[in-house]
Amino acid sequence: MEATYIETQQISFQDFKKNVLEDYKLGRISREMSYLGRREVLTGKAKFGIFGDGKELPQLAMAKVFKNGDFRSGYYRDQTFSLVIGAVTVESFFAQLYADTSIEREPASAGRQMNGHYATRSLNEDGTWKNLMQQKNISSDISPTAGQMPRLLGLAQASKIYKSVKFEGSEKFSNNGNEIAFGTIGDASTAEGHFWETLNAACALQVPMIVSIWDDGYGISVPTQNQRAKADISEMLSGFQRKEGENQGCEIIQVKAWDYPALLEAYAKAEHFARTESVPVVVHVVEVTQPQGHSTSGSHERYKNEERLKWEAEFDGLVQFKEWILNYSIEIEGNEQQLATAEDLEAIEYEAKKFVKDGQKRAWENYQVAIQDLKNAVFPLVENLKNQNTEIEAEIEKFKKIVSVSKKDIFHLVRKTLLLTRGNNTVERTNLQAKYNEIYAVEKDNYSSHLYSQSQWKATNVKEVAPIYSESSQTVDGRVVVRNNFDKIFSKYPETLVFGEDAGNIGDVNQGLEGLQEKYGDVRIADTGIREATILGQGIGMAMRGLRPIAEIQYLDYILYCLQGMSDDLATVQYRTKGGQKAPVIIRTRGHRLEGVWHSGSPMAGIINLSKGILVLVPRNLTKAAGFYNTMLQSDEPAVIVECLNGYRLKEKQPDNLGEFTVPVGKIEVTKEGNDVTLVTYGSTWRLVMEAAEELEKIGISAEVIDVQSLIPFDLEHEIAESVKKTNRLVVIDEDVEGGTSAFILQQILEKQKAFKYLDSEPLTISAENHRPPYASDGDYFSKPSVDDMVEKVYAMFHESNPAKFPKI
């Protein structure tokens, strides 16, 4: 067991003095970063600022117990903490404020996130994992209030998993599970459901987690008493306090933000509970001040009265810290010892201010050099064209008057010049066009890369391995295929685990995990409470720490509880760090063609539109689903795999190469060839479309049926367009609402694949009604596309073009 802060604090007075003064200096540096950052925004050099002033002391204390291998999942106020652990420098802080797109200068997000959003880089440039045990780790911050909490649960639970799970390379991620996950949250955000769901789950699971609540009494302008049932969150959480002898609950520690020695003691205790006993701890930091208000968007003088502002000035943490240092004295061997004089601290303050100003100046100069280089590369080329159109000279003069030139100003000038010189095939224009293509490719990478993996393990690189069948291949229920494939997976990949409601003891409600908990244990095949948002969060956090989690969401409708985390967190992990972090979690769910309002939704359009960055795979049967699991476990990308709920009892031939065969992502399958019309669908609806195609065949219409299989990515080889080129007609059939996934599919085929030019008839979509289906089979029949609907609507398309051959029904 790694030693805790309490166990290592036998130091001399001189070392103590050195530590205290170093803390004061770091606190002052952080404060000056906040002050100067605000000024940079208000003078127009940056767009927006949100800072951590007022929280310096508690973050200094938190940083002392934060060790290599530990993780933080926080929000946008933790600049002091990030500064202390080396995750941010003065230069990188201001580089982020200016939105500098250089990874070297702004390694947290390469300018993609507004300031205050911190991250360490978990990955090497090629996408391989760094040794996370050799660095202090910050999972990339997000702004949505309390959105960082579900992920925190998974980061903490990973430590508990690593106490029993080992695999080749696992030493990069854990030292026998001794790591702590630290979370931070503003007091007003504790009103969010994600906070309560995460804390509840942590208390049930007993994971090593420390949550710091920065309590400044307000949520922007709304006071605490209007945020929660009790103004004092510690009092409100008192029922969570663990009782002696019970293996549930958490420890709750309340401490003042301006009391330096009390803060050191509070975090030392918190670390001891979390690291040695694997107990979650809440550190409620009260009487926090916010000297500059919430952000640069407004002033806190608008909602804080004079008395409150006076109190904040007096109980500013750095003011109180300074007084404590000046008043501290101790007698050692008959001599009174002090920490510092007023002159000593003034010298530190001056040095801190200069240090920050120098760093800011370097950051601004580096940022400007990059823009100046871009300007110097294109401006002469634009000037070479000013004689070709009189309007170009006017554009150049406008450009010269811009006080602070940005990239968009440069690109606008170039693009306007190219527009004005269209049709002029001169050498000068060709040179400008070539330079534009060159610089646009660079900025495309700066602003749009890494939405999906760019490593050798990206899912599209996984080779297809066909299922192998023999005379001895058994015909079994679909659920047996997926279960037996999972058995192979858990045997092959010791880092893989699955968890969800009813996933463990009973082997999921459809028996797709039957008997696997007994075989692999309840750490790897685990039940959870009814709490979908944190089931997803468990997956994200575990995946960030090298595990391969499969987070099971019992039904597709329930994924709506996860959508915020999927959209704001998981889908953006690689993008918002520009390839610095990844979380290859697989979300397992099931749905389609269900019965009843609350189990029949098909929110696929919401998923694909809100979760760009996550692969969305929609297998038509359980063999295909098993193949997708095999594919994704060779990949480093997150995915949603939607199993067909009505397929578990349908018979399928079980492949002989379970755990080995793969289904390629972004690849369609033609399941029936035809010449007259292309029918495109996916998931459970495919079986009905195949039935409808057979009916159409009987009445003289030869339909080609295509199973999309993968919505994201979608038909990468544009095979659907080739089918439309042959049939000249297109029908998209989907059980989502009208304008839902069918609209996405249609856009991909007509616009991206340019299939519109092959059409002889207007393309048709056949979708569900815009309400949830009522209960029972009749509800499904009248609410979602039936075989009769498909046959009649496709037939009507042919009636319109040839009424003699296809008379009206």
Description of the molecule:
The protein is α/β, with parallel strands linked by helices. Helix content is 41%, strand content 13%. It contains 26 helices and 24 strands. It has a seven-stranded mixed sheet with strand order 13-12-14-15-17-16-22, with helices on both faces. It has a six-stranded parallel sheet with strand order 2-1-3-4-8-7, sandwiched between helices. Strands 19-21-20-23-24 form a five-stranded mixed sheet, sandwiched between helices. Strand 5 and strand 6 form a beta hairpin. The longest helix has 42 residues, at 342-383. The model has no long low-confidence stretch (mean pLDDT 95).
Mean pLDDT: 95
User: How far apart are the termini?
Assistant: 78 Å
Major beta sheet, specifics?
7 strands, mixed
* Low-confidence segments: none
Strand order of the largest sheet: 13-12-14-15-17-16-22
Radius of gyration: 30 Å
Oligomer designation: single chain
The number of distinct β-strands equals: 24
Q: Number of helical runs?
A: 26
**What best-fitting shape do the alpha-carbon axes yield?**
globular
| Class from helix and strand fractions | alpha/beta
Helical fraction equals 40-55%
